[in-house]
Amino acid sequence: MIEKALIKRTSKSYWAWVLFLIALIAVGFAAYLYQMTQGFTVTGMSRDISWGMYIGHLTFFVGVAAGGVMIVLPYYLHNVKEFGRITVVGEFLAIPAVIMALLFVVVDIGSPMKLFNVYIYATPHSMLFWDSVVLPCYLLLNLVVGYSVLQAENKGLHYKKWVKALALVSIPFAFSIHIVTAFLYSGLPSRHYFLTAMLPAKFLASAFATGPSLIILICFLLKKLCGFDAGWNAIKKLSVIIAYAYTATIFMVGCEFFTAFYSNVPSHKAALQYLFFGLHGHNQFVPFMIVFVICVVFALFLLIPRQNRENPVKLGFACALVFLSMYIEKGLTFIIGGLSETPFGEIASYHMTAVEFLIIVGIFAIGILIATILFKLVVVVKKDRDPGAYVPEDRAGLALKLTTEKGMFVDTVARDKDREDEDE
Amino acid sequence: MEKMSRRKFLKLGTLCAAGVSAAAIGASSVASAATTATTGTYQKNVKRLKGTAMGMVIDMREIDSEKIAELQKVCHAFHNVPNVPNEKDEVKWIWAEKYVNLFAGETTERLAEKFADKDFVALCNHCESPVCVRVCPTKATFTNDQGIVLMDMHRCIGCRNCMAACPYGARSFNFVNPRDYLDEVNYAYPTRMKGVVEKCNFCAERVAVGQLPLCVEAAGGAISFGDLNDPESKVSKLIAENFTLQRKINLGTKPKVYYII
Ligand code: SF4
Ligand code: SF4
Ligand code: SF4
């Protein structure tokens, strides 16, 4: 089936895009080789800030991977039929996200040739060990489930019972990857920004906003590029999930502010002060946090009132804002903020280097390349087997026109209903 | 650990040698050398310093900045600790830290400058409940039977989880190739490669042969070393008789370095 992704219905622009990504990967790989020959001195990390952008990105992409479960869970557990067409999008999103997360671990490791010591000398009291167990398991589950479901569809069959069983197993795994990643930080006794029982909950909530936001954005993109229609009802349902999860996340961020500033305990305030206002003259993250706050205000405004949320253009903006704000909060600033106060009561600064940037770009390119291939596969299979997912050309043009000019969205789900009932 | 792998290695050597001699190539000398090594009996190391909770008492009344610099020189020279000029990439096992920094969050608010800025000796606390050991995914950091927190540099993958976890800033990562920054190599102690973490090892290699740690010797009586579980040891007596401080005791790590103020 995989050949469908590579040769069927490919266009020049598809290959140009793939080549462009491969070029970025090559640049990133060169930067990685440079880091390995020179040592980590070429990164912004130091004796004080011992984890930097890599581990931040690991955290964020574990969240993206876990977020896919917000489609899988309602579909398999609550039988939310609208998600039927895009569960595979959720599962396939998790694959590049976990691969990226794992790559961010690998590039962060000082002696990668000894990486497998983690398994050879398995250490159950280490959270990093558990992270390296659950992440590959989750990756494998999503690969098997996503691929089997799509293959069944490709053959015009219903997927087998064991596939559903595995999909159910993958649900607790999705939660566990992010919980374990949170435990990695929240169990450290002297890092006050990390040391909070709220962390796993906050991570999960933000993942359930970020993952579905990205899925909606991907659906919009697939519609625009290939005419694949996820179904407006599915998108609407997802947007409700995003609205709740995002509000919960922001509420928890607010709670952190209250606890730190009302209690007035200096070490609890330090990280927030450093990130949001600057502390002891270190304020390189303040502009990021200003952007974060602006994103939050606009995203909440676009998500909470129903009429905003149900407008595709506004929803698209809201999703982009959710994704960007959580990327800043979790991916860029969380780790550095937590480590900024050294054990000696001083603030250490961190400046990302070009090498780190290029390596990160390379890993993004790997993730996007995998996503491109997987989603191409989805689109091609669906085109062959699920014609309901495509509005006929003229209607598609009209729909696009209506969407862009009048903010309307043409629903195709009603038409598909009979077909889905047949499946039962 | 090291002994185990050495024994395995020798056993393997015996097997190979046996195979070789069975093939009558006449490697008898190799075979006999290896055989003696494995058939010899293990004897208890009687020379080793005794104790189940090795700790340190540092009398800060007798140590000034120059002394600390001297201690650092002795320790770093013996243990091949690189002298990296770039502060970001620094590696240090024992160093000077101001009182306000060493006891950050536990000092008084309007402390006179002469106390606040006084240099104190900073090193790994060899905690009884060490966070670094708890978080290490490979057991490269471990506690030995004497309560000394040790590192296996061959096993360390350089994930730096232990650095984020240690509440005392005791650990350094080799951001550069440390061998490029050694003035002189001491062949009695291994050098390291880039990409691994290291820290003070309480001179376990000296404790094993009945010697006191180098910094203890160099301090000329201002630093004492011994078993905190033994009420008759010098460290226990010093703690019983003097006012002492430990760093960040509220974190439950149970540090084993005490400071007499
Ligand atoms: S001081 Fe730090 S490195 Fe040393 S044993 Fe305690 S936690 Fe581990
Ligand atoms: S850097 Fe080495 S010693 Fe530290 S936690 Fe990782 S493997 Fe263990
Ligand atoms: S105990 Fe040994 S290794 Fe530790 S600081 Fe002193 S001399 Fe260095």
Topology of this structure?
The complex is a heterodimer of chains A (424) and B (261).
Chain A: H1 3-6, H2 12-38, H3 53-67, H4 69-78, H5 87-108, H6 117-120, H7 127-154, H8 161-186, H9 198-226, H10 232-263, H11 266-277, H12 286-303, H13 306-309, H14 312-332, H15 334-340, H16 354-385, H17 393-406, H18 413-423
Helix pairs in contact in A: 2-16, 3-5, 3-8, 3-9, 3-14, 4-5, 4-8, 5-7, 5-16, 7-8, 7-16, 8-9, 9-10, 9-14, 10-11, 11-12, 11-15, 12-14
Chain B: H1 2-22, H2 28-39, E1 54-59, H3 65-78, E2 94-98, H4 99-102, H5 113-116, E3 119-123, H6 131-135, E4 141-143, E5 149-151, H7 161-165, E6 172-173, E7 197-198, H8 204-207, H9 214-218, E8 223-227, H10 234-241, E9 244-245, E10 257-260
Parallel strand pairs in B: 1-10
Antiparallel strand pairs in B: 1-8, 2-3, 4-5, 6-7, 9-10
Bound molecules: iron/sulfur cluster (3 copies).
One iron/sulfur cluster (SF4) binds at residues 75, 79, 93-94, 123, 200-203, 213-215 of chain B.
